[in-house]
Design a protein that fits this description.
By secondary structure, the chain is α+β, with helices and mostly antiparallel strands. It folds into 2 domains: 2-43; 64-251, no CATH class. It has helices at 2-28, 34-43, 52-55, 227-235, 240-247; strands spanning 65-69, 75-80, 84-87, 101-105, 111-116, 132-141, 157-164, 168-175, 184-185, 188-189, 192-193, 200-204, 208-209, 223-224, 250-251. The chain starts with a helix and ends in a 5-residue tail after the last strand.
Length: 256
């Protein structure tokens, strides 16, 4: 009995050991790519957080209007659905290399306003005949924050003004500067210092109004024989969409 069962027990023991050895090898062995996969995962760059532009909700326009936003998403404004925004040629001034220039045009092809950024042009000198009387025909605040480092600036506003020469020369646009307190000025500036990379921005018919020939940027401004004629022009329903377009201008937040 003993001589018969001893070899069998030894055989079963050897088989059990072989099974355990095989099971241990197959369970503990890693694939050839396992180490490389882990290393690649540990050294892969972390995903960048979404930009503020990507996470901010889109601006909504009033009914029958649309929103224009520049490619860098630094400014936006509303305009009637059938109006267009097209690239514009900058005037004879000095602008930053990355400045943008747009014209807002009606369905009839009339330029209602031009937008220019990165303005570095200095104001023209006072005319030889000195300061001239000027009049503010309309003014309303804008949804644009004043630049903290702007010197002698007021809260940005949309204004309609005339200055007296041989006729009354008019202009309209955004500004953070006023004329002199005594009601006379050499020039009237239609620009705002943006608190972001846009720099100095104009949005209207002229960057600067002088009491002579119209300035050399934007559509040719209108002149009037009397203050009453100018007031009636800006109060007319036909001018209202232009005023609303310009007054809707908004800047993006400071981008650090």
């Amino acid at each position: 009995m003993t001589s018969v069962h001893l070899p069998l027990c030894r055989t079963l023991a050897l088989l059990s050991a072989a099974v355990l050895l095989l099971t241990g090898c197959s369970g503990g062995e890693e694939s050839p790519d396992a180490g490389r996969t882990t290393a690649a995962a540990s050294t892969a760059p972390a995903a960048e957080p979404p930009s503020p532009e990507a996470t901010s909700p889109p601006r909504e326009a009033r009914e029958g209007w649309k929103v224009f936003t520049d490619p860098r998403r630094l400014l936006s404004f509303e305009l009637p659905a059938d109006w267009v925004v097209q690239p514009a040629e900058p005037g004879a001034g000095v602008y930053a290399a990355d400045a943008v220039h747009y014209a807002v045009r009606t369905p009839a092809g009339i330029t209602a306003a031009e937008l220019h950024t990165g303005i570095q042009t200095e104001d023209p000198p006072c005319p030889d005949f000195g300061p001239s009387p000027y009049y503010v025909l309309g003014s309303e605040p804008l949804s644009i924050p004043a630049a903290p480092d702007a010197v002698d600036a007021i809260e940005p506003r949309f204004v309609m003004r005339i200055i007296q020469g041989f006729r009354f020369f008019s202009s309209y646009g955004i500004t953070d500067q006023v004329g002199r307190a005594d009601g006379v000025a050499c020039t009237l500036t239609n620009t705002v210092q943006a608190d972001n990379p846009l720099g100095r921005v104009s949005f209207g018919d002229l960057e600067v109004l002088v009491p002579k020939a119209p300035a050399n940027t934007g559509p040719q401004n209108v002149t009037f024989g009397t203050i009453g004629e100018a007031q009636a022009y800006f109060d007319a329903p036909e001018f209202a969409p232009t005023r609303q377009v310009i007054a809707s201008l908004q800047f993006a937040a400071q981008t650090g």
